[in-house]
Amino acid sequence: MAATKPGGVKQKLALATCTLLSQQAAGEAIENDWVFDSGFLTYREADDRVTVEKFIVNVGGNISERDSLKIDVVFDTMTGSTPTGGLENSTIQSVTGTSGTGGFTASGQAAALAPFDDTRLAVKVDWKRELSSTLNMSYGAAISVENDYTSLGASYNLNKETANRLMTYSFGIGFAHDEISQTGGVTPQPLGDANDASTPFFEEGERDTLELLGGITRVINAKTLWQNNLSFTFSDGYHTDPYKIISVANPGEPEQSRLYESRPDSRARTAYYSKLVHQLTDTQTIHFSYRYYTDDWEVDSHTFNYRHRLDIGGKQYIEPNVRLYTQTAADFFSRTLLRNQPLPQYASADGRLDDMTGITLGVKFGKPVGDNGEVRARLAFISQEFDNAVIDSLDAFVLQISFKKGFY
Question: Is 139 within the bounds of a domain?
Fold first, then answer.
């Protein structure tokens, strides 16, 4: 399924995204010859709307004195129903099917939702080479495949440490090519009538994305690390979600018709990310990060994330986490289009483009097992509120179980 999946839920493989925002500091020496890391994640929304089951395998290690390799494999299964953008109705209405399904009829709230059933396989490979004691580079390649969405990507990263090891400068460039469609390899005419069999359909849409990223990581003192990154992303091509629709209706009146949404064919995005890691005591470390995002669709967002790791003996730890998110609406977002008015060039009722706020509360537990092994468990609750979207709230929980084993 293409872009209809809930945003921010699945940690999609960044096919052309530079890897400078990793959990570890840039330039950190490789400690293990090889590490195997695997996990299972389940995501479930309230009211039985969306369920995601995710299987993750990461393998990485040294292949020479200067070279290391990392391979990430992700397999997702996704089922349930997701908002279409259309209004809830008291009468039977035709609803556009999403990934793996066709059209169907429904009434009431069901008319604002569409069922889906999809799978995704993603593979990413990174090769890192130490050019000198203070300089390293890495190449990445990735592919992600669904029955209506394919993405290919490549990336290059360069990290340079200063002689005193207190500063690391990073640069990255990435490219992705995406192919997007409804099931069957077609895309509808933007703002075409979703209930009219004569609405034209075209070939799958294509989109190219270029990303540039620069960063500075600074060792403040023996207990504090500060990281700052700035990224610029430019995409050109098909940005419309081929499944999403928007209702034509005046306020307080029944829906007149449903049109496929229409989005601009380009997008320019800028993001600033800052992360501070500080060791409070021998048993407590805090992680605080802030991200500001803006684009030429007038979407601006702020993300605050705080994690507090507490070691509880025997190398066990517990890590509470809180994440706050706020976003402004895209300039072409609208709950509905008014009857008897000229159609705009762009329009979408997708709640992910609405004014919204969100909070995530979570906790993670880690415990060593055996020789060089660790088991981890994470539980999180997600709540989102949308100002004008037809479906104006979302509640979900995430459970993840992971196992890591070092071989050296």
Answer: yes
